[in-house]
Amino acid sequence: MSSKTKNIVLIGAIFLVLFLCYQFAISNTLRLKNEHNVLQTEQKLLENAPEKMGILTQKKIYYDSILNKMNLGNTSIENNLLRVITLEVEKNNLKLIDFNDPHTFEINSSQLNTFDFTLEGDFTALVKTIYVLEQKHTFGEVVHLNFEKKKNYRTNKNYLTARVFIQNIE
Description:
The chain is of the alpha+beta class. The protein has two domains: 1-70; 75-169, Alpha-Beta Plaits. The chain has four helices and five strands, in the order H-H-H-E-E-E-H-E-E. The protein has helices spanning 3-46, 49-69, 77-92, 123-136; strands at 95-99, 103-107, 110-121, 141-152, 157-169. Strands 1, 2, 3, 4 and 5 form a five-stranded antiparallel sheet that branches. Helix 3 (77-92) packs antiparallel against helix 4 (123-136).
């Protein structure tokens, strides 16, 4: 074997040893170093978690007390309707897009109120919500219901909106 062949075999062996060292030692070390850095950042985020939890609990108590003060005895049909709509929207994963002031019309000695609001979501959730509002509560009857399919051109997705009129006589 000539010295040129020996040198080529030696250089090949050196590259093979370097490759094996990287595969079995260096790559594992780098992976563990990255994992260690991630765990350290998570630890820093969780260091003052009990303090943050205490502050959030105090805020919750404060905001609950404010909401209890603003309850005002549930005297307004509009407030009760909005409260029930909000609960149904959260339960059925909908969005309340618009809630307009009620339109009032006086006939003889009685007053006719029409509440107008718009919801966004999937069809079955919209129908469930409207059913609950009309059948399970005493807000009045649904006199108009308009479903409209719209397209969001930014995300290129379609969505369904429902404009609802609920009418009651006082």
